[in-house]
């Protein structure tokens, strides 16, 4: 049997994982006022004398010079911020041009959850692109043709995200593991975040601030992408409500279980995703008045389906704070300070005569994956933004230092 399909799937997963780590660092350091290079000293493999030019639809979207801010020289020879940005764009271009099929609205070689991861990373990368290009205009003369090329690039990838909204297997994902559902939440909240950010930075004169406008009410006073916000918000809300059922206090004193169909397993990624999704719901969810699907029972009016949901719901913030406190005290890190995979519960058995066993997280899976070290960073950045507590930033910085130390890289 040929191994090519499997190899292609592994490569497909590797690209968003690379995007995940880079965008997690960029997001985390954004509010700290540092570039990721200044903070951790990653050296790029791109030679500075050979600017990369990515061609999409025959247009040059980036040169090194267009992303290099003027000002003080790089600190102690660290790589330029433009190098990381170029690598980010190159990874995005590979993922979308080689693996995405717009007529299907899908990455055909992906499975449901990896497609949700990739959708999340495309939207997060779009946010990094629009913010970086806005910064460039502070240091370089206005160039209308370059502005047009950049906007065209943004719209190229954003239209792929809108087609993915219809291509995503949203019905199948409702019955899958909780971490799969939480990637759906993060993906569409990232889409909303990008739309508002791009509007504020590049369409300020046309951005009304009404983030819950109905598609039928949209007009030329809004950037066209705002018509998608209600749909993105509804899907994020629906999947957050479904995934929140995984929070369980009967075992281990709290924490999310991984899969509702299997023996309880409390793992790092599901809890990290729940933290990140909860704080993102608090920060970016614009509210939702869509009552579909009607199978959800409204305790006040059962015939009307889901009740309205408000923006900046305090419950979402409380969920994030509680979940991180549980994760931090759960013992789910090793001697290097890295997150392990998770815990089983000894003696647990299901069925009619089932038992919770010890009820404790006492069967440890000590495998360490990079996947479990990056997702939490966006949650910690969000918790700091929402609460103002420096503890969350300090914990994030420490985790990054632990990851770098574990690789053996020289961080000077």
Structure description:
The protein is mainly alpha-helical. The protein is built from 13 helices and five strands. The chain has helices spanning 4-30, 36-40, 64-67, 81-99, 112-136, 144-167, 170-173, 178-202, 229-243, 268-284, 314-328, 371-387, 390-407; strands at 55-56, 59-60, 265-267, 340-344, 363-368. A three-stranded antiparallel β-sheet has the order 3-4-5. It has a two-stranded antiparallel sheet with strand order 1-2. Strand 1 (55-56) and strand 2 form a beta hairpin. Helix 5 (112-136) packs parallel to helix 8 (178-202). The protein starts with a helix and ends in a 5-residue tail after the last helix. Mean pLDDT is 80; it is low at 1-11, 34-79 and 206-220.
Main attributes?
two-stranded antiparallel ribbon; single chain; globular; disordered N terminus; 412 residues; mainly alpha; 13 helices
């Amino acid at each position: 049997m040929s191994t090519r399909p499997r190899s292609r799937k592994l490569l497909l997963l590797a690209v968003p994982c690379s995007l995940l780590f880079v965008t997690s660092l960029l997001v985390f350091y954004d509010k700290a006022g540092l570039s990721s290079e200044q903070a951790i000293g990653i050296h790029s493999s791109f030679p500075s004398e050979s600017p990369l030019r990515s061609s999409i639809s025959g247009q040059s979207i980036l040169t090194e010079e267009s992303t290099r801010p003027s000002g003080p020289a790089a600190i102690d020879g660290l790589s330029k911020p433009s190098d990381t940005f170029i690598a980010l764009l190159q990874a995005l271009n590979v993922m979308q041009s080689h693996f995405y099929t717009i007529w299907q609205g899908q990455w055909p070689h992906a499975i449901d959850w990896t497609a949700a991861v990739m959708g999340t990373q495309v939207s997060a990368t779009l946010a990094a692109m629009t913010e970086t290009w806005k910064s460039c205009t502070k240091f370089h003369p206005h160039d209308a043709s370059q502005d047009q090329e950049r906007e065209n690039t943004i719209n190229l990838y954003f239209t792929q995200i809108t087609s993915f909204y219809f291509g995503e297997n949203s019905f199948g994902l409702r019955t899958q593991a909780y971490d799969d559902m939480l990637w759906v939440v993060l993906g569409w909240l990232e889409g909303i975040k990008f739309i508002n950010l791009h509007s504020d930075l590049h369409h300020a004169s046309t951005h009304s601030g009404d983030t819950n406008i109905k598609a039928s009410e949209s007009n030329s006073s809004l950037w066209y992408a705002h018509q998608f916000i209600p749909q993105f918000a509804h899907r994020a809300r629906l999947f957050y409500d479904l995934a929140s059922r995984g929070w369980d206090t009967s075992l281990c004193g709290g924490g999310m279980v991984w899969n509702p169909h299997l023996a309880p397993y409390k793992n790092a990624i599901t809890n990290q995703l729940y933290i990140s999704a909860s704080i993102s719901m608090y920060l970016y969810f614009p509210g939702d008045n869509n009552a579909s699907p009607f199978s959800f029972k409204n305790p006040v009016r059962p015939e009307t389906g889901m009740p309205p949901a408000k923006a900046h719901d305090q419950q979402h913030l409380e969920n994030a704070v509680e979940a991180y406190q549980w994760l931090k005290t759960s013992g789910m890190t090793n001697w290097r300070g890295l997150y392990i995979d998770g815990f089983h519960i000894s003696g647990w058995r299901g069925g009619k005569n089932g038992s919770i066993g010890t009820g404790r997280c006492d069967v440890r899976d000590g495998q360490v994956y990079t996947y479990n070290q990056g997702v939490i960073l966006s949650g910690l950045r969000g918790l700091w933004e929402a609460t103002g507590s420096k503890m969350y930033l300090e914990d994030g910085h420490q985790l990054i230092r632990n990851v770098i130390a574990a690789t053996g890289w020289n961080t000077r």
